[in-house]
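We recall that each integer encodes one residue's backbone shape. We quote one record:
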Amino acid sequence: MAKKQVRTPQERSADPSVVELLQHACDLECATTFDRADDISPCPIGKESKCCKNCSMGPCRLVRPGQTGVCGATLETVVARNFARMAAAGAAAHSDHGRGLAYTLLEVAEGTASDYAIRDPSKLKEMAGHLGVSTEGRSLNEIAHDVATAALAEFGRPHGEVAYTKRAPEKRQQIWHELRLTPRAIDREVVEMMHRTHMGNDQDYEHLLDQAMRTALADGWGGSMIGTDISDVLFGTPGPIQGEVGLGVLSEDEVNIVLHGHEPTLSEMIVIAAQDPELIAYAKSKGAKGICLSGMCCTANEIIMREGIPTAGNMLQQELAILTGAVESIVVDVQCIMQGLVPIAARFHTEVITTSPKTKITGATHIEFEEGRALDIAKEIIRRSIDRFPQRGKTYIPKDRHMTVPGYSHEYIGYALGGAYRGSFRPLNDAIMAGRIRGVVANIGCTNSRVQFEAFHRYLVEKFIANDILVVETGCASIASQKQDLMTPEALSRAGPGLREVCETVGIPPVLHLGSCVDNSRILTVLSQMASEGGLGEDISDIPAVGMAPEWMSEKAISIATYCVASGAYVIMGVHNPVEGSEVVTEYISKGWESKVGGKLEFITDVEEIFRRTVEHIDKKRAALGLPEYDASKWGRSGDARMNQLLDLPVEERIQAIYGGNGNGHERIEAAEDTLEPVA
């Protein structure tokens, strides 16, 4: 038998600090997700979705031409069912996140979660408008109560359609209605998808895959969008804020607590508790200089864009943080949490603490989080973490840390583009129409240990901005760019001349951080507002834009990709094609979906081919709109001298010069809101 190929640390990661820690793991003989990826070969039949295990007459492996399952299910049916179930699971995960936040808002309104408050009343009233809740002459708590109740009703409404779908362009809504794709209720679509894929039900691959679109739309224009809006209501709508990213943010002489997962209700409360003078004094009594919080994965995105708490890393760095020997506790809630944390933590003094009733890990400490006792529980977790500090041994913290400016909500982008008096996407549309900006790429999704960590993200984003393509990012993809200094003014030196001109004028970097993975709903809103603004067609499908997840691994990524396609976008996924087992299904989610909804989904594993097809699609959409061909030589003659002067400054001074104050965009947008009536 051939010996399994084991990659070197350099082959496993494009991030130098990760390479350093992977070598450290080898020296300690400590296995990580990268070792397991090399040790375990993916099942070649399951990888292509040619295996059905939906009843006990199977599992049926369809490996010969014309072969069917015991029940007679064809390859196309089996592959479509497997894909549809992935989309349903991803939609359930993100939408349940939104449901949890709706319950928190309800508790705030009823006074049973007194540790939280409504931090963005304007966003609450905006939600009320979308959900049909009256605001005239009513208190914030009354409005919040009815908004929360209406949001919860969206999950199981007995009649009608998901209310937030009305936020899509009118032409897109018409397409959904004609194809019967408009989601009726969030939970209903997920349940129906699971019902249809039960043995003996839906056995037409087109019918199955179209329901996958409706299920995913219930996520993107339902659960996820509700989750994003309520997060803004409770914790503040993000604006640009100066922060740091990289495993080097871990402290040598403070208590390190890493917050990992997706729920801001937990992480925001720990941020507040960590500022308690009594807990800081307690940490000092144990020999530490203080308390150092850092984020991991999408929790990192939540707390850096609202509170400026530094980001330690993205999903594949969770085990590596423990390997530094400097982490007292890693506190987790839901999603993207590896069971491998516990055996690695056992090699050090680190405690793994689970907090969600939906997530327990064998061997971890479970402290269940309750919104009604939020601050007390947060303090208990911090106190336990402080108690671990005296047990700390030798540390191995990489020097890697980078300045970054995350936190571009769609509200702030509109404000930055249109100014304080009338936020607008018109300048962005005009820049695309003129050719200064060639198009837009939404680079989202995960990282995956079966490919070189962050290599695709790093290469593609740099190449896009060099070709005058504006990039917006969420989730773990955004953390990869932050570690490359692509979300600071410094990145303008790597941008093409047209994009650079626009970014100089507006005061934004060429890569914009839009939040966590649930915040992909912000991208839908941006695209909808661009379509509604005029000049780039009437629908999302007309815009020169591409979505992608080149290192995806999660079922949530399949749901995100599917709702973006159903909204009219061209989406590219990397790593591998989960429907590769059927040429018919592979072609249908590309050409078939494009003929129906104007969007298509393709799986491409070659990085150069991803770039080529992206640019080809953007230029094709430009031509269809009658826009001029992209010509970089026309741009780059205005403002460059000033920007060159700024680039000579230290990074913190550059951020202050461009954003003002301490680099906190919240101050600018809040000041505008204080002086103006809201503009419809």
Q: What stands out?
A: The chain has three domains: 75-235, 243-402, 405-669.
